[in-house]
Input
Amino acid sequence: MRIVIAEDDALLREGLALLLRAESLDVVATAEEPGAFLDAVDAERPDVAIVDVRMPPTHTDEGITAAVEARRRLPGLAVLVLSAYVEQAFATDLLAQGSARLGYLLKERVGRVEQFLEALHRVAAGGTAIDPEVVAQLLARSRPDTRLERLSPRERDVLALMAEGLGNTAIAERLTVGDGAVHKHIRSIFAKLDLPPTDRTDRRVAAVLHFLKNTHP
Output
């Protein structure tokens, strides 16, 4: 796995590089500003980019803008975005624009090495990884929604883990239940959220989008 890191905090940037290299991952370049990051993407053609949301010069959304441009230049590039705090609108937009090979983690997650590496590998493999704290805050600020209120507590647990990007086996392990129970809960979630089978919509993504949009303040 070839990785480029875009992070303006020198300590975090070098710390990430050391951590990943210690795991035998190939960090091919690091950058402290968007221009250098895009140059590295062009030159190195990495598999994954780890990008800070807020970068110079204004420290607003330069990292996101650069990540979008990097994916335009290198289709199929996996992007794992890091943020210092929960930015809920971005979490929602992340899935709305297509969730494959995308992740959004809080920077504090880097210190939980096993979880961070799990998210990195999941994104690199084509999946989605959304920080559990983002999901928890969205749940805490939930607005009334008739369809969401139909869900049982366990079904809400399953949907929250789906929103993190976990697959059925990982959900089963997290909840200490069998795969069959997870499949049953997901079928029930689809039914209660009025998501019938269709060739035009991925029901799993639709369910997660419904959850995120209706728990956004």
